[in-house]
Design brief:
Layout (H helix, E strand, L loop, with lengths): L2 H15 L14 E5 L3 E3 L4 E10 L5 E8 L9 E4 L7 E8 L2 E7 L10 E11 L7 E13 L7 E5 L1 E5 L2
């Protein structure tokens, strides 16, 4: 990850940890968002690209989440691109540990450029290991953060998917 992307990811974390940067005098309900992982069928040694979806009730400017998979199936990501309604945003990722990929999507200017709605926002590419066991394993999210243009955090729900390996 490049230095500007690391700086943006750190800024996102700080904004969320401090309760955001907004403040218009009134009390506004928090936004709500749902991150959904896909369910898909694959095989050992196959390169895959899967879309992660976001549903939100208001515009967002950034998100950060850990994508978690069985490391015997998906140990790391090979790449990431913004997708769908998020194509104007910058994506970044870090393979934090085997089976744990930190994903970040942000507007470098902090603008709420990810409109409210539903659909894919990130496409993650990886290779299924050659020793991946046959069967089903979870593909889930942990530690989700979604923020608006004022740095206010959303209430986030996550929906896990599955990786089904066929031999």
């Amino acid at each position: 990850m490049t230095a500007p992307r690391v700086a943006a990811a750190v800024a996102l974390g700080l904004l969320a940890a401090c309760g955001g940067g907004g403040g218009g005098g009134g009390v506004e309900p928090r936004g709500t968002a749902t991150l959904t992982a896909p369910t898909f069928v694959t095989a050992p040694e196959v390169r895959e690209s899967v879309d992660l979806e976001l549903t939100s009730d208001r515009a967002a400017s950034a998100l950060q989440v850990d994508l978690v998979a069985d490391p015997a199936v998906i140990p790391s990501a090979a790449g990431i691109v913004s997708a769908g309604r998020a194509t104007d945003l910058e994506p970044a990722f870090q393979n934090v540990a085997p089976g744990r990929i930190r994903l970040v999507l942000f507007d470098p200017g902090g603008a709420p450029t990810l409109p409210a709605g539903q659909g894919p926002v990130l496409r993650v590419s990886f290779r299924v290991t050659g020793t991946a066991p046959a069967g089903s394993s979870a593909l889930g999210f942990e530690d989700p953060i979604v923020v608006d243009g004022d740095g206010e955090t959303f209430d986030v729900t996550v929906v896990a998917g599955e990786v089904i390996v066929q031999r």
